[in-house]
Amino acid sequence: MQILLMGLNYRTAPVEIREQFSVSEVALEQTLSDLAAMPGIAEATIVSTCNRTEVYVVTNDRVRGEQSIRLLLSRISGLSINMFKPYLYTVADQAAVLHLYHVVTGLDSMVVGETQILGQVRQAYLSAQESAVTNVVLNQLFRSAVSLGKRVQTETAIGQSAVSVSYAAVSLTKKVFDSLSHKTVLVIGAGKMSDLTLTHLAAQGVDKILVANRTVERAQEMAQKFGGIAYSMEQLREALLQADIVISSTGSKEYVLTYSLMNELMKHRKQRPLFCIDIAVPRDIDPTLGRIGNVYVYDIDDLQGVVATNVSLRKQESIRVEQMIEEEAQAFGRWQSEQAVVPLIADIRKKAMLVQESVMESLLNKLPELDERQTKVLQKHTMSIVNQMLREPISQMKEMALEPNAAESMSVFARLFGVEDVLQENDPMHHANEFSMPIREPRFDAVALNDMMIERMGSRTEKRDALPRDWNGVSGGVALSAL
């Protein structure tokens, strides 16, 4: 099994391409369901924001997994695979884990250190979990990612010096206007991005705030919060006539501000300049509005170079964050390695319990005079023997799973206990060693195995007594291979 990531972001694709791959909250559940049903997909999560669309999956066949993701992206966008393939990036296993950690900590954001992405990734994971398309691996991965993101925000100053896209939009307005104190700002949309934008605008002392939204109750709620005036989308024309600045962030699939609408309105505005910033993906504002006199249009890609303050502090804090990412990635790798031996341990325990049950059945048949109390005592002590016999081997298995030659060690244990099939069925160490080394074919004899085990147990003085060269796997009348 492999962790596979395929996606595109603001670095690899312009906004006119990215908007084709945007997955709305309404469509997300069905999209996840479609993905999970595709060949080679065992688990799935989709992160879709204004700056990226990324598909994370666990796959048992990388080639088929990649084919399935590309097919899904083609369905989402309506584009042929050849048209968008140049914009895609694909990484697997440790590289995919590191990428997610960089995303959730804000290091991969357009504005380094921005904090909004953490909530977006968390919501993406919760949506996938609610759709029942995640399992053990992605659950652990995204939980660790969200936990890391929270620690970065509380333990470093990178978030304090960072800015979000909404802040960048407000910064852009300040570059155009020396002061916002006598300006009227219209914010279209009443979601989280709009809320953040209004927070920054209010801090800059904007004279008048207008909020337009499809759900007028939501517009009223937000307008009241910031001392503004609410408008329905049917009243948008009236709001546009008053505005000096328009910042739009809705989930609409169609343009909210069209060329024909603004061309007509500018006549009524007597050509008074209108400054428009589109921070939505897909875009809300028709880019051809820029052809209309005194209408200035900026989209999300124009914000990349807006904020240059606190660069040195962000770089310094980024070093700390990188260290935290590396530590978390190593912890996740250890978790994967430990999980890789779970099927093996479970199968060994199962075989041991079968031996114990068989011995108990034999004893009860040979000693029919045993009463209930004596039977329980015997049951307890035979179970204790099994547990004590397995305790050290299982502990060693967990430790050895973290070592570079883990695949060989697990193969030895599997051969010792006669459960080689479980390695083939679950392929656990191949999955674990994506973080360390490729699998090598095990070649061990009984004496070499004995030497290795005695060395790990801390006693070399009685190697040959512990396991003779003609060892046949039977000791004390109990066949170890039967465990």
Automatic annotation (TrEMBL):
Its job: Catalyzes the NADPH-dependent reduction of glutamyl-tRNA(Glu) to glutamate 1-semialdehyde (GSA).
This enzyme's EC code(s): 1.2.1.70
Positions of NADP(+) binding: G189, A190, G191, K192, M193, S194
Reaction(s) the record says it catalyses: (S)-4-amino-5-oxopentanoate + tRNA(Glu) + NADP(+) = L-glutamyl-tRNA(Glu) + NADPH + H(+)
InterPro entries: 4pyrrol_synth_GluRdtase, 4pyrrol_synth_GluRdtase_dimer, 4pyrrol_synth_GluRdtase_N, GluRdtase_CS, GluRdtase_dimer_dom_sf, GluRdtase_N_sf, NAD(P)-bd_dom_sf, Shikm_DH/Glu-tRNA_Rdtase
Other notes: During catalysis, the active site Cys acts as a nucleophile attacking the alpha-carbonyl group of tRNA-bound glutamate with the formation of a thioester intermediate between enzyme and glutamate, and the concomitant release of tRNA(Glu). The thioester intermediate is finally reduced by direct hydride transfer from NADPH, to form the product GSA.
Pathway of action: Porphyrin-containing compound metabolism; protoporphyrin-IX biosynthesis; 5-aminolevulinate from L-glutamyl-tRNA(Glu): step 1/2
Signal peptide: none
Protein name: Glutamyl-tRNA reductase
NCBIfam families from the UniProt entry: hemA (TIGR01035)
Residue intervals of the Tetrapyrrole biosynthesis glutamyl-tRNA reductase dimerisation domain: 321-418
Organism of derivation: Sulfoacidibacillus ferrooxidans
Subunit structure: Homodimer.
Site positions per UniProt: Important for activity: H99
Domain (Quinate/shikimate 5-dehydrogenase/glutamyl-tRNA reductase) ranges: 172-306
A GO molecular-function descriptor: NADP binding
GO BP terms in the entry: protoporphyrinogen IX biosynthetic process from glutamate
Enzyme class of the recorded protein, top EC level: oxidoreductase
